[in-house]
UniProtKB/TrEMBL annotation:
NAD(+) binds at G16, A17, A18, G19, Q20, I21, G22, N109, Q116, V133, G134, N135. The gene is mdh. Belongs to the LDH/MDH superfamily. MDH type 2 family. The keyword Hydrolase does not apply. One of its GO terms (molecular function) is L-malate dehydrogenase (NAD+) activity. Catalyzes the reversible oxidation of malate to oxaloacetate. It comes from Corynebacterium heidelbergense. Residues 160-325 form the Lactate/malate dehydrogenase C-terminal domain. PROSITE patterns: MDH. It is an enzyme of class 1 (oxidoreductase). This is Malate dehydrogenase. Its EC number is 1.1.1.37.
Amino acid sequence: MSTQTTATPVTVTVTGAAGQIGYSLLFRIAAGEVFGNRPVNLHMLETANGAKSAEGVAMELADCAYPLLNRVLITSDAAEGFKGTNAAFLVGAKPRQEGEERADLLAANGRIFGPQGEALNDVAADDVRVLVVGNPANTNAGILHAHAPRIDRTRITALTRLDHNRALAQVAAKLDVPVDDLTQMTVWGNHSASQFPDVSELQLNGEPVAEKLDREWLTGEFIPRVAKRGSEIIQVRGRSSAASAAYAAIDHMRDWVVGTPDNDWVSVALPSDGSYGVPEGIVSSFPCRCVNGEWEIVQGLEINEFQRERIDASVAELSEEWAAVKQAGLV
Ligand code: NAX
């Protein structure tokens, strides 16, 4: 990296900055965990109600005296928050209320992500990288994509890295091996209970490992445990995953900036180009490599009947969400 590049500040926007994921995420971004030595201009985009709390977080950021933290902006105006942004973490979303239908949730989020997509389209930097964390993350990213035609398909992504990390951790514990020795995990589909964490291509120190994992454990424990881990955390912790979600978001964005290792890939949700039978435009999780700053879906993997069934089930759920969004006139 040249001195010039190192000295140019990167503008990072975090929506939902006053929330619990934001509270873990902002400090790590300011510490240089995503962009290395580049100074950071941090834009905290919150609702009017969340702005005061965001100010408190900004005070704590100041108190850390981060050498790389160049400037902090707090705003409720999307056009201001996304102005010149190089990396946008879209964490703020409308949570599901008790008794609320999924269609209502989709509609409420459509009203957030449509205008945010338009603002990103108008004012973000040309090289913007967008990561949607707020749920329903895949479909929110789809709404954003529909409202931001200037931004390339592969630059609008949703977070399934937490599911990917959870899957790696479960297998590492089962085999009693360091998590770092495992490569080529894949999560397909939606960031929801229908997701398919897939060990078919998983390797342990470069050797296939799927046959060491019995089918009963995979279908009876591993897949449901990873897919429902979010609910398990809520049950035990009393609140939803926050630090692990922030950590995964950092992983996702850092890999996008520095690239993935040659012998590995990660799980990324992005608008489909038709790969693996996922209808074009549906935002699904795929195995992806980052090459020269661009996500590429890993091609040529053989998909057996067991995998096909599970990928199709999750993609069917995504297609239903997308149909509901269209029916509500949100795209
Ligand atoms: P919190 O409720 O703690 O924080 C959300 C924040 O977003 C609040 O401060 C709120 O004021 C703000 N907000 C709401 N609408 C906004 C808007 N239009 N513009 C800017 N800010 C807005 O939630 P938190 O625990 O931080 O979770 C945030 C989102 O992440 C939720 O939608 C949650 O479901 C989702 N998650 C996604 C995960 C993933 O892997 N994709 C895992 C963790 C998490 O469940």
